[in-house]
Design goal:
The chain contains 4 helices and 41 strands. The chain is mainly beta and 433 residues long. The protein folds into 2 domains: 2-139, no CATH class; 142-427, Pectate Lyase C-like. It has a 25-stranded mixed sheet that branches. It has a 6-stranded parallel sheet with strand order 21-24-27-30-33-36, with no helix packed on it. The protein has a 5-stranded parallel sheet with strand order 4-1-6-9-12.
């Protein structure tokens, strides 16, 4: 079963790496065409099909609705216009290929959403799913999810059932929670947390007692966190020695997919392992990024994305400043690396104290890496790895990084626009919001 899940996840990652250039069933504000609907059953009858959102809502006011892409043409489904309904009826979207959510789906009443696609949908552009009522039903690829709408709700659900399948019902502003004095999700997580493209903002913690400090203290080998954003985090690990801290997860042994931490600070005043996204990883990180200031003390392992990396890291980037004290490993992307890393870049300023190992991309690496890049101007260093340059790590000027996708970055996995991400490459399935 674990091999099957890994194969499905790999297929989903591959699907997001290939531009959508074939048959598509669009759910949009254009007129319905090439669709056959009978009561609540709607099927595409041509490779180029459109289901108008108002027509779809009219059906949902009467029936549970099942929209099916044409399997003969390996047709995608793409939600490109906002879709919202309040009637107590369920919507099922089914594709043998890919479901792209490029705009919002809002379930306003106590209803249901069933996304029938291997590996789950791919969130692009403004894509997200919002539920107004956590008693609604969500199923993705045959897996039922319990909806939560707050950090406290998430923590309670994980404490009760560490292996649960959970989903974030809406964007959540944690400012009203105040500053946490201990890790909210302290129970090691072993389930799936589906962010649905939503964001938790203003999460703040000042912890003086624990070793793993973040929203999630740790996630286990079978755990998956995906399609989740964090914004404006403030993570302070104080008076704890050899701690791990991150904007999302402190210690990762599972899989983090399509996640981001945009804005804020991760900081410690003692030796520790710090990253904008994850403190230490022994698992997998795919299609994820961080734009966080990461500040370590002496003898720290500090990276813009990950402090200490094992396992696999692919299609990632970091934009934040990274600093640490004496005898530290400091990298714009990863502080200390023992992982298989490929296809990533960093732009943040890097600096360290006396005898610190400072690199624009990696502080120290024990394994070969592939297609990593760093900004030689904004980083303040001409070395990709502390004191040296190695194969697989290439320096580029700001203008060069903004001029086109670097070699090795697949068009489809990566996108680029002068109007997005300051012109730097961004991840198509995990864009800045």
């Amino acid at each position: 079963m674990r091999k099957l899940k890994a194969a499905i996840l790999s297929a989903a990652i591959l699907a997001a790496s290939v531009p959508a250039a074939h048959a598509t069933l669009q759910i949009s504000d254009k007129s319905t065409k090439n669709m056959s609907c009978s009561a609540g059953e709607c099927s595409a009858i041509d490779a180029d099909a459109v289901m108008n959102v108002n027509d779809l809502v009219a059906l949902l006011n009467q029936f549970d609705v099942h929209v099916v892409a044409d399997p003969a043409s390996s047709q995608d489904i793409a939600v490109v216009s906002p879709l919202a309904w309040a009637a107590p009826h369920a919507l099922a979207l089914e594709s043998d290929d890919v479901i792209y959510l490029r705009n919002t789906i809002t379930v306003q009443g106590q209803a249901g959403l069933d996304l029938r696609v291997a590996g789950g949908p791919i969130f692009q552009k403004k894509g997200a799913v919002h539920f107004w009522d956590t008693a609604s039903h969500l199923t993705i690829d045959g897996q039922d999810f319990r909806l939560v709408n707050s950090v406290a709700g998430l923590a309670a659900a994980v404490a009760a059932h560490p292996g649960a399948s959970l989903a974030l019902a809406n964007d959540y502003d944690a400012k009203a929670d105040g500053q946490y004095k201990s890790v909210p999700v302290s129970t090691p997580f072993a389930g799936t947390f589906e962010g649905l493209g939503n964001t938790i903002s203003n999460f703040s913690i000042w912890d003086t007692a624990e070793n793993n400090i973040a929203l999630f203290a740790s996630i286990k080998g079978k755990a998956v966190i995906r399609n989740l954003g964090m914004a404006k985090v403030n993570v302070l690990a104080e008076n704890t020695f050899n701690n791990a801290a991150g904007g999302l997860v402190a210690y990762n042994a599972g899989t983090i997919l399509n996640c981001r931490v945009d804005g804020g600070t991760v900081r410690t005043d003692f030796a520790g392992t710090l990253g904008g996204l994850v403190g230490i990883t022994y698992g997998h990180i795919y299609r994820s990024w961080a734009n966080v200031s990461v500040e370590g003390a002496q003898s720290a392992e500090v990276g813009g994305l990950v402090g200490n990396a094992h396992g696999q890291v692919q299609n990632v980037y970091a934009l934040g400043r990274v600093i640490a004290g004496d005898q530290s490993d400091v990298g714009g992307l990863i502080g200390y690396n023992f992982a298989h890393v490929r296809d990533g870049y960093s732009t943040g300023q890097v600096s360290g104290g006396q005898n610190a190992r400072v690199g624009g991309s990696l502080g120290t690496t024990q394994l070969p890496v592939h297609d990593l890049y760093w900004d030689t101007e904004t980083s303040g260093t001409t070395f990709g790895v502390a004191g040296t340059n190695i194969d697989g790590v290439t320096g580029m000027t700001t203008a060069e990084l903004q001029a086109g996708l670097p070699p090795g970055f697949l068009n489809g996995s990566w996108s680029q626009s002068a109007k997005v991400n300051q012109g730097f490459p961004y991840l198509a399935a995990n864009p800045p919001r």
